[in-house]
Amino acid sequence: MEQFSSLKDKIVLVSGGTRGIGYAIVKGFLNNGAKVALLGSRKESVGRALEKLKAENADYAVVGYYPDLNKEQEIKEMLEELTKQFHSSVDILVNNAGVSDAKSIFDYDDEHFSKVMNINVDAMFRLTRLCVPQMKEKGKGAVINTSSMVSLYAQGSGSAYPTSKFAVNGMTKALARELGKDGIRVNAVAPGITATDMVKALDQKIVQRMAANIPLQRLGEGEDIANAVLFLASDAAAYITGAVLSVDGGFVG
Ligand code: NAD
Description:
The protein has a single domain (5-194, 221-247), classed as Rossmann fold (3-Layer(aba) Sandwich), CATH 3.40.50. It is 47% helix and 14% strand. The chain has helices spanning 20-31, 43-56, 72-86, 110-138, 150-153, 160-179, 197-200, 204-212, 222-233, and strands spanning 11-14, 35-39, 62-65, 92-95, 141-146, 184-191, 244-247.
């Protein structure tokens, strides 16, 4: 379903686009006529996502890559390839790749903490830093970061995860201030509990208890989050930057 005509022919890069929320975001942009490059961590998962999308609609303009998001050179090469493929650089960047965590602080070591921060924060900054120069040249661009409801009030374990998502909100607001004069808007969505693999891996008793406390009485779907991302990326949000939009059924508000 097409909702935002301003997204037609835009070049969109979605990290963590192979499944879950990211896959729904990729589909949302494609259904609005955008050209999309999805990123994943492995060749196989990227291949599977592309196959699934092409089976749904052979006309989708979609490509996929699997650079190591912690390696600047691999990202640069991917961006060159993408620009050749679509004959223009990225207009809209969706930083969605992320890992959650549930470890007790008593079980943490430096390596584990860094692993969460590396993908959720460092990789987000790196990808943004490498995409915004071309947006600045065009005089227009949008960056949308996937934060989380835990960025507003944390959670009872896995402290690296909320720590990383608080940082995502900080990065969103800092870059919105810095890049506004260049025509680049930077916003975030803060999903509540969304029915993806990440949530399916959690203890289902905890998930059900949380769902019962959601004012809208259900878990979020990938499409719920995608719709908010599409809005923030579109010209309908032309005067919105630095926002962290809760998409959580009213859970945090
Ligand atoms: P998911 O596990 O289904 O998908 C995660 C995506 O990130 C995958 O495409 C994966 O390839 C990618 N990814 C993970 N580690 C990577 C790495 N090291 N390098 C490159 N790519 C990597 O998760 P999801 O639930 O769809 O989560 C997507 C985003 O939404 C994450 O940022 C997550 O923190 C956030 N979020 C999810 C929920 C939820 O309830 N599902 C709630 C709030 C926020």
